[in-house]
From TrEMBL:
PROSITE patterns: HTH_TETR_2. This is Transcriptional regulator, TetR family. It comes from the Bacteria. Residues 13-73 form the HTH tetR-type domain. Residues 36-55 bind DNA. GO terms for molecular function: DNA binding. The lineage of its organism: Bacteria, Bacillati, Bacillota, Bacilli, Bacillales. Keywords: DNA-binding, Repressor. SUPFAM superfamilies: Homeodomain-like.
Length: 235
């Protein structure tokens, strides 16, 4: 029975790759909002009905295809975080990495972290990494703990929990700053998608980090502020 289950798991993973590769190619060619199930099935060499054997609907398929775009972000994340001198610095550099990547692919990251998918994204995130567990190889446990939680505020809360012990942030401010930073990013992303802001992607990342870094530093205990060395764009 175990062998049969393992065989089915491998087969499912193979089919996922066919469809997600096809969807990713079409996203590059036509944009996230312009692809259809039939086109994805045709590109993968299967029928539309076969797609529905593996994915509930187009939104779910788009979500899993969009996750492929996060690979570059996850690979860059450790390099950004190691610039930091302390947990607050590391968090700020982690945010900068996320902003730089997310504003490069507005539709993709909006789908992943803002849009209503009809299901809890955490469950879909878990399903993705069950199939693509290899994407977590060579990532530190700290980074894995961040990316395997889909909710941005939850990621932040888990990561900065230790800042309480380090004396950087009061426990009462933890959820506040985790949620505030997420809302700042969401607001800028929504403004760009709705053409409310006429800025370049680099300007969007820089402006967002300006608000995020100021908000974070505001809740750092005064005696610790001088220890924050974060600088946007540091090589």
């Amino acid at each position: 029975m175990a062998a049969a289950d393992e065989k089915k798991k491998i087969q499912n993973a193979r089919m996922w790759r066919y469809f997600l590769n096809a969807a990713a190619d079409l996203i590059e060619e036509k944009g996230m909002s312009n692809i259809k199930i039939r086109e994805i099935a045709d590109r993968a060499g299967y029928t539309s009905s076969t797609v529905y054997n593996y994915f509930q609907n187009l939104s779910h398929l788009k979500f899993f295809a969009a996750m492929r775009y996060t690979t570059a972000y996850f690979q860059d994340l450790p390099n950004y975080m190691k610039k930091g001198e302390n947990t607050i610095d590391e968090w700020l550099y982690g945010w900068e990495c996320f902003c730089r990547h997310s504003f490069q692919y507005l539709e993709v990251y909006s789908l992943l972290y803002i849009e209503n998918l009809g299901v809890i994204p955490e469950k879909m995130n878990q399903m993705y990494y069950e199939v693509y567990a290899n994407e977590l190889i060579n990532l530190s446990e700290e980074v894995q703990s961040i990316i395997t939680h889909h909710n941005i505020a939850t990621r932040s809360t888990l990561f900065i929990q230790k800042t309480i012990e380090e004396g950087f942030i009061d426990e009462a401010d933890l959820d506040y700053i985790a949620n505030l930073t997420m809302l700042i990013w969401t607001g800028m992303m929504t403004n760009l998608l709705n053409l409310r802001k006429n800025v370049t992607k680099e300007e969007a990342a820089k402006n967002t980090m300006h608000y995020i870094s100021r908000s974070i530093i505001d809740v750092v205990i005064p005696e610790k502020k001088h220890l924050i060395t974060y600088e946007y764009g540091r090589g």
